[in-house]
UniProtKB/TrEMBL annotation:
Keywords for the protein's UniProt record, in alphabetical order: Autophagy, Cytoplasm, Cytoplasmic vesicle, Cytoskeleton, GTP-binding, Hydrolase, Lipoprotein, Magnesium, Membrane, Metal-binding, Nucleotide-binding, Phosphoprotein, Prenylation, Protein transport, Transport
Organism for this UniProt entry: Jaculus jaculus
Protein name: Ras-related protein Rab-24
GO BP, one annotated term: protein transport
Superkingdom: Eukaryota
Pfam families assigned to the protein according to its UniProt record, in alphabetical order: Ras
InterPro entries in alphabetical order: P-loop_NTPase, Rab24, Small_GTP-bd, Small_GTPase
Amino acid sequence: MSGQRVDVKVVMLGKEYVGKTSLVERYVHDRFLVGPYQNTIGAAFVAKVMSVGDRTVTLGIWDTAGSERYEAMSRIYYRGAKAAIVCYDLTDSSSFERAKFWVKELRSLEEGCQIYLCGTKSDLLDEDRRRRRVDFHDVQDYADNIKAQLFETSSKTGQSVDKLFQKVAEDYVSVAAFQVMTEDQGVDLSQKASPYFYSCCHH
Ligand SMILES: Nc1nc2c(ncn2[C@@H]2O[C@H](COP(=O)(O)OP(=O)(O)OP(=O)(O)O)[C@@H](O)[C@H]2O)c(=O)[nH]1
């Protein structure tokens, strides 16, 4: 991967144990590791080349450690990120509170960063709906308020994992195209209702 250009810096944020590393593992290596849980220390980086139409996009993904012990370090990793995947565990309401903490930080310190909320471990709900601790509609309302997109995923089954990262890349390509259009042809900004266009291009 040395010398490879990264198009989009993506940062994974969220409470420890919510499944950030598993999400990256599923997306990049299409696998789900079983065995004893190993918490991330500091952060890990992986790059993934993907296609959006006829374009090639390289995502550079920073998987941060969820433990509050590493909070200061996570701040270093989200700097300059174009996209943040803020994860919470669908079976743990405290993890959603932690997700809101990161959203608040990003909104005040990284205005140009598009936020993707990701409710993880949806397979546990398939097994037993009563395990849900974070209501889908509540989070959707919250996501609308903060102009974020919402996904519910399972790294175990793979549900919606590709869809999430594909959306990140597609949004990047749309914004890049939009920036070229504004430079070359001029575009009526009022036509662009998408929060991504707004958050990335209003400077
Ligand atoms: N059933 C199920 N378990 C999951 C899923 N994703 C992660 N897990 C489990 O949840 C635990 C924590 O997963 P990690 O991916 O290590 O969590 P993390 O957010 O990276 O944790 P930190 O590195 O401490 O921040 C592990 O035991 C995983 O096997 C999922 O989609 N379904």
